[in-house]
Each structure stands twice: as structure tokens, then as C-alpha cells.
Design a protein that fits this description.
- This protein is mainly α and about 80 residues long.
- It contains three helices and two strands; from the N terminus they run ββααα.
- It has a two-stranded antiparallel sheet.
- The longest helix has 18 residues.
- The chain is globular.
- It starts with a strand and ends with a helix.
Length: about 80
């Protein structure tokens, strides 16, 4: 994932998940970790770009989210 700050800084993060998961689960986990990192860094507003139609449709409320970790961010 890549974070861009308003000041023009670019922060690249590589996350290795060492357990079996589907592509959709990997997208969810990456998004949750990115949201957690942004929160810890003090972000108050952000724009998230994601190339997964399933994840974006669930975030936008078009699909029901069954992932418990993601549900807490959507509430």
C-alpha cells in the first residue's frame, strides 16, 4: 500500500500475511491494516483507492459485508 500526505510525502508499505487466504480476504486485510496505520498516524480524512470490485462495493454499501473485521469500519 502507498500513503500520500498532503505535504507531498509518499510512504510505501509492504505487508506479508503468512497464512492461507483468498484474494478477497487479502484485499480486506490490507485495507484494515491500512486504516489502522492511518489512524495511528493521526489521519483525520483520507481517500482510499482499491481495485477490488467486491471490497469497494461492500465499502459503498452495495454488497453485504460478511467480514467481521471490516464491519467495524463500516459502522
Amino acid at each position: 500500500m502507498v500513503f500520500h500526505t498532503l505535504e507531498g510525502d509518499k510512504i510505501e508499505c509492504i505487508i506479508r500475511m503468512d497464512f492461507p487466504m483468498t484474494n478477497n480476504e487479502a484485499e480486506y486485510e490490507t485495507l484494515v491494516i491500512g486504516l489502522d496505520l492511518a489512524k495511528v498516524a493521526g489521519a483525520e480524512n483520507m481517500v482510499v483507492y482499491c481495485d477490488s470490485q467486491v471490497v469497494t462495493s461492500q465499502i459503498n454499501g452495495n454488497y453485504e459485508c460478511k467480514n467481521e473485521r471490516m464491519k467495524k469500519y463500516l459502522e
